[in-house]
Write a structure and sequence with these properties.
The protein is an all-alpha fold. The protein has one domain: ABC transporter involved in vitamin B12 uptake, BtuC. Helix content is about 80%, strand content about 0%. The chain contains 12 helices and no strands. It has helices at about 1-10, 10-35, 40-60, 65-85, 90-110, 120-125, 130-160, 160-165, 170-195, 200-215, 215-240, 245-265. Helix 2 runs parallel beside helix 7 (about 130-160), helix 2 crosses helix 10 (about 200-215) and helix 4 packs across helix 9. Pfam families: ABC-3 (PF00950). Its main location: membrane. It is a multi-pass membrane protein.
């Protein structure tokens, strides 16, 4: 269709459509990050994305595929070591997060023939959104939303009270693995939006903002999507008019909304 083609040929509209697609799934998933207190876990997966990018160039696979595989492997390693209890979880997360980021940077430095925009990878390159990126984003979003709808009750039960959920027959460990896989997919498709250093902010801030107003989990998930839309739209507008970096501008807008909501509304119980 000519109208759609003309919109997609405009980099601003591609950026906006892509950003809204990421916000659509980052909102509900971010709620689980907040409820389960997994912010540092999300940071660890996000930092490992750069290692995934380096490995993608080494083994000649698409960047998104390399990032997903690396995030999944790192998550399995994390679960294994956390069960041995040889180190505190926050210590282990810190070691893995910064080590993965450093190994990724060092690996890229050994590939002089590979031209990589590190600034874009670390802080996002939203205005360079391509049609292929949009396909990745909305394909991943459709898969994640389908999983969330089908597994919502079990995920919620295991989040509220894992032991009771086991008694009720909920496969808690399996759901945790599925949740990690969804996080990995979101990180892979969100790299262009805010970069690997700011992905967790897009997951957490809209969800935390929604928690102030929501009366139940479903309402919180819906509000998180709305606040994500506001962050993307406001951040892109800020970048357009003030010539600021797009990814950080999205996070700044999300933070400003968070301050506005927390400063002017009473807290709800969610």
């Amino acid at each position: 269709m000519p109208i759609i083609d003309s919109l997609l040929d405009d980099f601003f509209w591609r950026a906006l459509i892509g950003g809204l697609g990421v916000a659509l799934v980052a909102g509900p998933l971010g709620c689980f990050v907040v409820w389960r207190r997994m912010a540092y876990f999300g940071d660890t997966l996000a930092h490992s994305a750069l290692l995934g990018i380096a490995l993608s160039f080494l083994i000649q696979v698409p960047l998104n595929v390399g990032v997903i595989l690396t995030c999944v492997v790192l998550a399995v390693v994390l679960v294994f070591f956390s069960r041995t209890r040889t180190l505190a979880t926050d210590t282990l997360l810190g070691i893995l997060a910064h080590s993965a980021l450093a190994i990724g940077l060092v690996t890229l430095s050994f590939m002089p023939d590979v031209r990589v925009d590190l600034t874009g990878l670390l802080f996002g390159d939203l205005l360079a959104m391509s049609r292929a990126d949009l396909l990745w984003i909305y394909g991943g979003a459709a898969l994640i939303l389908l999983l969330l709808v089908s597994l919502w009750r079990g995920l919620l039960m295991s989040t509220i009270h894992s032991e009771l959920a086991r008694v009720e027959g909920v496969q808690v460990e399996r759901l945790r693995l599925v949740l990690v896989l969804m996080f990995s997919l979101v990180i892979a498709v969100a790299m262009k939006i805010v970069g690997v250093l700011l992905i967790t902010a897009l997951l957490i801030i809209p969800a935390a903002t929604a928690r102030r107003l929501a009366r139940n989990p479903e309402q919180m998930a819906g509000l998180a999507v709305i606040f994500g839309f506001i962050a993307v739209t406001g951040g892109l507008s800020l970048s357009w008019y003030l010539d600021t970096p797009a990814g950080p501008s999205v996070v700044v807008t999300a933070f400003a909304t968070f301050l506005l909501i927390y400063g002017g509304t009473p807290q709800q119980q969610t």
